[in-house]
Amino acid sequence: MSFKELQLCPGILTAIEESGYKQPTPIQQQAIPAILSGTDLRASAQTGTGKTAAFVLPALHLLQTPSKLPGSGPRILILVPTRELAMQVAAETVKYSKHLQRSKTVCIYGGVPYPVQNRELSRPYEILVATPGRLLDFISQGRIRLSRIQLLILDEADRMLDMGFIEPVEEIAAATPATRQTLMFSATLKGSVLNLSKRLLKNPMEINIEPAIETHDHIEQRLHYVDNIDHKHNLLEHLLTDPTMNQVIIFTATKHLADDVAEKLRDIGHNAAALHGDMNQRQRTRTIKRLRTGDIRVLVATDVAARGIDILTVSHVINFDLPMCAEDYVHRIGRTGRAGAKGVATSFASHKDMSVLKQIERFTKQRLNPHVIPGLEPKGKASSGRPSSSRPPQRSQWKPRYNRYKV
Ligand code: ADP
Ligand code: MG
Predict the structure, then answer these.
(1) 344 part of a folded domain
(2) Measured in angstroms, how far is the CA atom of residue 351 from the centroid of ligand 1?
(3) Which of 13, 189, 258, 374 has the most CB atoms in a 10 Å sphere around its CB?
(4) Are 181 and 315 within one domain?
(5) pLDDT tens digits for 196-212?
(6) Which ligand has its closest atom nearest to the C-alpha of 309?
(7) Is 196 found in the same domain as 249?
(8) What pLDDT band is residue 70 in, cutting at 50, 70 and 90?
(9) Residue 406 resides in a domain
(10) Which residues lie with the beta carbon below 6 Å from any ligand 1 atom?
(11) Does the pTM exceed 0.70?
């Protein structure tokens, strides 16, 4: 199927062509006609499958027809969980609307002073990309009115709920017209996401793009059993000598450890920087920019800060600590191998990590291949690898506890 067959307006097709996209991804093939038909939609597809364009392109198309609602104010609202994602989604709306009129985007998020955003909001705009907290601030100050919203989009709804945004999201939805069209995109559509969708969506169509069995087959996934944190540091140092490692994102469980690892790496001469939720917005933006321009080779990050990073030159991901849940694992490794490029994702696991490791393998339907580096073999409990497989996996052993670490 080609983008032309999706009947998007010519200006959008030109921008797609300029982006170098040859054909719509599966989620785009299914979601775009559905959205254009006006139906509510909840959709899930794994990370890196082009969900952003799946909702941005039809949203831009809809904007080309004048609004039936009087007054001024945004017509499209895209809610996202984090500032980085807000900036990334806004960058895409700007990119795809380059040749269109009446499609100006404003992007608002917390952690930056109000005056700059106030200025942007004072000019006419049609598309609002926002994180929930800051949007509610602006609504209560009377700076933003949502009475003209015709399309409400929730991106990464699962993450939004994990981050405790359920009430803000409902409050925001309540401030939009009941006649709106609502779309919900998520890596998964289970539990509380499903419940929220039942409250916000009307007779939604559902699209689930099942991950292929060979999930991320362009990303090679490796595993190193480790004894302790010193062992992790030694392995890490060794891995960073790999000449094929163009740029790498290293994930740690805590902000403190991210700083610590970045500092240790700088001490031994690596071009490394940390990225986490304790840094202010300016620092975070600057750090991501430095990664994008190749100014830094090694980024040490926590989960929240790393969401949404889409940099083609990131060749490797290293899980210095395994994530708390399998979904996060898939998000993390998806930071490499963007847009079909090859990538390598390496995870460190100690004997304490066996249950989450099982969870990840069950979720990705893939077994991670243990690798050993001569001289850096595990010696302790982890050296025997996983516990005997005679015992069936025990689901109850492991529960996702997203808030255990403040990232
Ligand atoms: P998701 O939100 O599903 O994780 P993104 O929307 O961030 O994925 O898209 C992942 C990458 O794929 C981005 O670099 C994007 O520019 C690229 N992309 C999106 N649609 C296409 C397409 N049809 N063809 C090629 N690349 C695409
Ligand atoms: Mg996305």
Answers:
(1) yes
(2) 36
(3) 258
(4) no
(5) 999 999 999 999 987 64
(6) 1
(7) no
(8) confident
(9) no
(10) 21, 24-25, 28, 45, 47-53, 310, 338-339
(11) no
